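Replying to the earlier thread about multi-chain prediction with a worked example.

Input:
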Amino acid sequence: MKIEIEKTFPQYFKPSYPEEFELFSHFEVTAAIPTVLFAVTTWKENGKPNVCLHSWSCFHGDKTAFFAVMGNLYQHTHTYANIQREKCFCINFLPLSCYDRLVDTIHTNDSETDEFAVGNFTLSQAKTIYAPVIQEAFLHMECTLKEIQDISGAGIAAMVIGQVQHISVAKEYAQGYEKRYSKDGFMMLIPAPQDLVSGEPNMSAIATVHIEKYD
Ligand SMILES: Cc1cc2nc3c(=O)[nH]c(=O)nc-3n(C[C@H](O)[C@H](O)[C@H](O)COP(=O)(O)O)c2cc1C
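Result:
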C-alpha cells in the first residue's frame, strides 16, 4: 500500500507553526528530501558582509562548466538583492559545529548588520569574484551569476544558477573521506518529515553523512 499525496493541500496535515503552509509547499514535508546546508556570502549595497543559510540546491556540470543551482532563494532576502546587483556570490560549506552561529545571522539580519560579526566568522576575500568568504569554511565555491528564474512565477522565490569559477579546500579536507563525510564535514537539512498517516508535524533535523559502502 502507498500513501498518495495530491497537489491540493491534504487537510489532515497539521502545521508545526501557523504560517508553515503559507510559506512552504506540503510536498516539501511529504518528500522531506535531505539537501546539503551551506552559507551564501555576498556584499550588501553599503559594503557590509552578508551571510545566508541555504539548503535547496544541487551541484553539477559537464566538462565545459560546473554550476551551483540554488533551486529556491527567497526574493525578499538580502542575498537575492545582492546577487542581482553584484552578479556573483560565494558558497561556503561549514561543519555542524557552526550551525548555531549561522542561525544567529538569520536572527540579526538588517541592512546595517555585519553578519560575519554576528556569526563570529573570519572574513577573507574571494580570489576571482567580488564576495566575502567565511574563512572557517572547509570548502568554498566562488560563483558568477549565470541565470535567475522564478520557476513558479509567483514572485516569492527564484532559482539562482551560479557558474563556479574557483574552489578552495582546506588542506585537512583534501584527501580521503574522514573529514568531508563525518561530523566535521558536509551538514545536511532533513526538512520536517510530516507523519503521512496521522498528519502530525515533525521538526527539521540537521544531519551529517555516514558512508555505508564504496563503489
Ligand atoms: C535550516 C535553514 C535552511 C534554509 N534554507 C533556505 C533556502 O534554501 N533558501 C532560502 O531562501 N532561505 C533559506 N533559509 C532562510 C534564510 O537563511 C533566511 O531567510 C536568511 O535570513 C536570509 O538572509 P539574508 O536576508 O541576509 O539574505 C533557511 C533557513 C534555515 C534555518
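The chain has a mean pLDDT of 97.

Feel free to reuse this layout for your own posts.
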